[in-house]
Design a protein that fits this description.
Layout: H1 6-36, H2 42-56, H3 62-71, H4 80-99, H5 106-121, H6 129-161, H7 167-207, H8 219-235, H9 238-247, H10 253-273, H11 279-293, H12 301-329, H13 333-354, H14 380-388, H15 399-402, H16 406-413
Helix pairs in contact: 1-2, 1-4, 1-7, 1-8, 1-9, 1-11, 2-7, 2-8, 3-7, 4-5, 4-12, 4-13, 5-12, 6-10, 6-11, 7-8, 7-10, 10-11, 12-13
Length: 414
Amino acid sequence: MENITLLIGIVIVTALVFDFTNGFHDTANAMATTISTGALKPKTAVAMSAVLNLVGAFLSVEVAKTISGGIIDESAGIRPEVIFAGLVGAIVWNLLTWLAGLPSSSSHALFGGLIGATVASVGFDAVNADKVVMKVLIPAVAAPIVAGIAAWAATRLTFRLAKGRDEADTAKGYRAGQIASAALVSLAHGTNDAQKTMGVITLALVTGGVVAPHSDPPLWVVVSAGLAIALGTYLGGWRIIQTLGKGLADIKPAQGFAAQTGAATVILASSHIGFALSTTQVCSGSIMGSGLGRKGGVVRWSTAGRMVAAWGLTLPAAGLVAAGAALLADQGDWGIAAVAVLGLGVSGAIWAASRRKPVTHDNVNDLNTPQGLPEEPVGVVTAALQAVAPPPAAPSAPVTTAAAPAAPAAATTG
């Protein structure tokens, strides 16, 4: 590490800051449904997820290789300041979507930032378009669909197997299963997402001549990336946890178990073959699939539509911010300093805005928090599905006992 220059050191620190934002941005992937169904208390859930994210960071380096020697051609004149600009673009987009409570993809923010900065500084030839299509874009489209179908099928099977049994009794078992499946998702997240920061740091080391091209990440890179994402995970991205746990679908313990198991399977399989997919998209697709898999289940399509719009905007938006940062950083030392100051200023402003309407572990399961996730009427898709598979009839009960709780029940599940 004695050959690391000041600029490369700045890039490494910025990469770890991105890793930290990735952690709290994506905590919801593993723990949103576990928290919303009461399987674990919020602070316990994020602590467990943080530990398993750290462990997962040591399991594989295939995704890191995709980043460090895949989507960007490090031999095409990529300089550390280009990587710095790409990271700034990714961090700004991560914070903006976190403020809005939208579970957008930290992975795609990173890819968009790197691609935008590279194109602005070096040109399109420095981007390996075939790798971008095969290992980023195709998985981005396919993974949430596959995860959603898997979660839908698993949910249908789960409720079929539990048919006729007391829901309260089965819920206990499913909550235990949720804890196990949430642990698996956290492990998978560390295996996939922590590696992206490892890949960026390794790319910076390659461009600075510190390590040879196509090298595996050094051990200190693996350790630091794992610790950064674990710390971010522990602090908890409560705003996004609220959206995924309560604002996207009405999830019961059996659905949460099915969604998390399906998501973990897809993520671990992709990590093994080096697909740098978005764990956010996979987990969101699983939650929607599990919402549709239960008879009478409701998916809030307005929230889902906002999420999908954010997914589509992430690559170009982060790329545009990073491209502007790269053009400024190319002006020399003062340009790099200006990018750093602007990045810190924007990040500070976003944080200050978030304090006006805080969402914490104390109110993450309350839909009446200032963030506000209002009641949504049943959409066209859900109505059509309910017409085919209507919800089971409610058990008969005296009018005097059924009438009173009807209104509050509707309010709490909305």
